[in-house]
Amino acid sequence: MSSIGQTTRPPLQRSPLRRSLDADRLLTLACVGLPLIGLILFFAYPMVIVFLRSITVGDSYGIGNYTEVLGSAGFWRATRHSLTMGGATTVLSVFLGFIIAQGLYRCAFRGKWLVRGIIVLPLLAPSLVQALGLIFLLGRNGVISRALGVEIEIYGFWGLLIANTLYALPQAVMIIGAALVLLDARTYEAAEVMGASPWRQFRDLTLPAARFGILNAAFVCFTITITDFGNAAVIGGDYSVLATEIYSQVVGQRNFNMGAVVGIMLLLPTVISYSIERQAMKRQQAGQSTGQVAYQPSFAPLRDITMAAVSLVICAGIVAVIGIVVYASFVTLWPYNMSLSLKHYNITLAGGYSSLWMTIVVSLAAAVGGTVAVFLLGLGLRRLPQAIAQPIQILAAMPAAVPGMVLGLAYILTFNSTATPLYLLYGTAALIAIVNFYHYHTQGFLTVMTGFRQLPPALEEAAGSLGAGLGRTARDIVAPFIAPMLVSVFFFLFMRSMVTLSAVVFLTTPKLSVAAVTIMRLDDAGLTSQAAAFSTCVMAVVCVAVLSMKVTIALMGRRSKGAV
Amino acid sequence: MYLTVRDATKTYGTFTALDRVSIEIEKGEFVCLLGPSGCGKTTLLRLIAGLTDLDGGEITLEGATLSDLPARKRDFGIVFQSYSLFPNMSVAENIGYGLKIRGISAKEIAARVTELLELVKLPKMADKLPGQLSGGQQQRIALARAIAVDPRVLLLDEPLSALDAKVRATLRDEIRQVQRSLEIPTLMVTHDQEEALALADKIICMNHGIVVQAGTPEDLYHRPATRFVAEFMGSSNLLATEEVARHFPDLLATYPADKKAYIACIRPEQIAIKPAENGVATVQSISFLGNLQRLELDCPAGPLLVETHGRSPCRTGDSVELSISTEACTWVLDDAEQPETTPA
């Protein structure tokens, strides 16, 4: 009977039954160990250094720097400004974000893809592009100011508020939208049958369901506003905030210890905000149920036309601010000679386009290295006991709480010191790639972990029982399964690295610069049109990356069609 | 003895999942681990597979210890309840994966895959992706994948639980057929006593991390050792010794000599009834189950469950005579535990 197995092939080679040195355990240790060493060396250690420097007075430790900073009027003014700006931006962007999310997920009108596409535009450009756009629109020589013949003071609070709101809005829409999607259509049907009016449904169902989303969005908007440097540097004018305060302490006055103190002070609200946000996120996820029926809004003219109009106005604003930058980059001499030319694309600042190529290389390196690192970490953590994995996970999720300015400052304090061999990294492109990766480590790590959570343990166990070791299982089973997540992480890291300014602003040297810093320098030098041209180039690269990501994910989806 | 587990112990914190469990599997034998959920049967299977580490005890295969050998070096085949086919690989790639790891040539793998697809009766499915198959088909492929490498032991972790009743019955027979023809020593975890009775050469009944009784299906059904086994393996009438002494004194003839606390276990189909005026028992209710009927009787010793084949000679409210032969009564230890799943 047993023709199967015996006659058709040679007998399998049995591995001898002996106690073997387990290569898999070593591999697991390497998977967790290497990324962990990275996290300690390039995140934890610099953060310790920045703290130590903040309490260094002369040759000993003390709280002298803190008393000095806390006693200065400049610091309190910057703090007041940061908190006011954070609060105002949060209220405005969450309010507008809720309207747009409500329009996208709870109303019926055409052209939602356009709204979705336009809303994320500010994420594809360095944050200072919004500020540049506002200057071209509302500045002294702005299109609108000249058309209306009025002088608008765009530098300062109002300009910064608009720029920051445009920058925070995409986050608010995405987070609130994700919360609205979670609410089951059947809940609304039940309310409808019970006689609840649309207003009651909104008040009793939609708002409570979106509660955590709104809270979460508020904290995210607050954090990115008080930590953003680009907008404040370009359009803030005399309105100093903590991020510009650190910059002026460090770059202006070469006062590193004071910069460290301000950095630590900036860290306080972001850490608090981030930890509350994480809790809110958990609560929201706990409320999820499976087998949902998606809500399909039906057309209600009064509601939908209003919502479509409001969304359209907001989108028009975003397009105007970003579009004017692209347009201005082609204008021969703003605002006197409005004929189009390419002359601003001839960058006259030292280095020219070299920083753009450098940024692309650095971004690719951060994306490749970062994707591999978070993949290995996720792979290894699955095989560690919870007691060990938990603290590592917490450490891996921490970088998001650290503002880019503070991380950049920590890097310059750590790597510009000849005390350790790490000094060799200072002034290299590698260090810029590294700071970009660790700046956005949390988002990449959490995305990959989401992928790993969807991977059933039985798949790996089945592979193991068939004789596959960890390396083979990772290549044949795990990597294909979470490939879509890895692609997202790769492009996320690439795009953020292309446009980030805050963390890298301290690490560039005259010989080694990155795109966002070049844009800032061009603007500082009064070459606003060249800054616009350079921004346009960066946006073009990022748009190509976005398209590549969409194509890659679509191709992967087609290939695995039919798979669950 | 082919595979032996001696004193296997596994604890999770303060919870003891397995407490010094010892089992044995002979060459070619089909063994079922049976018990309610949480009894430790899956933990035991995972220990044998090498997917979980032992806290104490030893597992040996043909006399050699397995304890320190990782799962991938044990040459075992495993099938999970959740199918667990690799979603990114075709059916043929799934089945051939273990062979590929062992460095078998592509040509040989292809031949073997064709053979196995015939064996599991899905010859045309080679190029399909797992997502395109039904649950039953996926589980057949998972079985083919597990036996492709000619495993030294086949481990089945509730392989039929996720399938609907009809597919379950067909696949149950196919698993039995394949196992018989290939003579692979097989260990299957299940909580379904019917499945265990139909498939196993030997059933190991577990509860609370210990083996309660091991033996042939007939042994466990007709000669349960404890109240737990009696209640878990089908339905039974359990009568306290005093009640037996009062109402069926003849049955005490077989009462064991030791002084432990036994109770009487009488299977419902072993009680003969016939209608009689002024009989000792009254028919409370009758459920018609097609091939048999289940009667609930009210008798002085307490409620009794009786099953009869064919047409029932009585109706609800009738009074009946009972006769129970001495062989029909088994004395089981009263372990005073209610099984979590109440048998129908």
How would a crystallographer describe the biggest sheet of chain A? 2 strands, antiparallel
Q: Mean pLDDT score of chain A, rounded?
A: 87
Low-confidence stretches of chain A: 1-20
**Gyration radius over CA of chain B:** 24 Å
Protein name (chain B): Sulfate/thiosulfate import ATP-binding protein CysA
Organism (chain B): Pelagimonas varians
Pfam families (chain B): ABC_tran (PF00005), TOBE_2 (PF08402)
InterPro entries (chain B): AAA+_ATPase, ABC_SmlMolc_Importer, ABC_transporter-like_ATP-bd, ABC_transporter-like_CS, Mo/tungstate-bd_C_term_dom, P-loop_NTPase, Transp-assoc_OB_typ2
Q: How would you explain this protein's 3D organization?
A:
- The complex is a heterodimer of chains A (564) and B (344).
- Chain A is mainly alpha-helical and 564 residues long.
- Chain A folds into two domains: 256 residues, MetI-like fold; 270 residues, MetI-like (MetI-like fold, Orthogonal Bundle), CATH 1.10.3720.
- Chain A has 23 helices and four strands.
- Chain A has a two-stranded antiparallel sheet with strand order 1-2.
- Chain A starts with a helix and ends in a 5-residue tail after the last helix.
- The N terminus of chain A is likely disordered.
- With 344 residues, chain B is an alpha+beta fold.
- Chain B folds into two domains: 220 residues, Rossmann fold, CATH 3.40.50; 98 residues, OB fold (Dihydrolipoamide Acetyltransferase, E2P) (Beta Barrel).
- Helices cover 27% and strands 31% of the residues of chain B.
- Chain B is built from nine helices and 18 strands.
- In chain B, the strands form four sheets. Chain B has a six-stranded mixed β-sheet, with helices on both faces. Chain B has a five-stranded antiparallel β-sheet with strand order 13-17-14-15-16, with no helix packed on it. Chain B has a four-stranded antiparallel β-sheet with strand order 2-1-4-5, with helices on one face.
- Classes of the chains: A mainly alpha (564), B alpha+beta (344).
- The interface between A and B is large, with 37 and 52 residues.
